[in-house]
Write a structure and sequence with these properties.
About 30% of the residues lie in helices and about 10% in strands. By secondary structure, the chain is α+β, with helices and mostly antiparallel strands. The model has no long low-confidence stretch (mean pLDDT about 85). The site of zinc ion has 7 residues, from helix 2. Zinc ion binds near residues 8, 9, 11 and 35. This is DUF2197 domain-containing protein. It comes from Pontibacillus salicampi.
């Protein structure tokens, strides 16, 4: 398990291997974490501004690699 802070809401989260961002952060501890809630609202926002469906938006994760 890892402790990290969400880039957006600055809250602290403990994430495990079930989180898709876990391995990236473990590999690169200073990389950004976006919690599920912020991830969801980002996807919602992108959906609203681009008209994409959620399934078209793969993972926001990709932006932070
Ligand atoms: Zn957050």
């Amino acid at each position: 398990m890892l402790e990290t802070n969400c880039t957006f809401c600055k809250k602290e989260f403990t994430i495990g291997p079930s989180d898709s961002q876990y391995y990236r952060i473990r590999r690169k501890p200073d990389s950004r974490y976006v919690c599920k809630k912020c991830n969801q609202s980002m996807q919602q926002e992108a959906q609203n501004s681009t008209g994409l469906k959620p399934e078209d938006i793969d993972k926001y994760d990709a932006f932070f690699r």
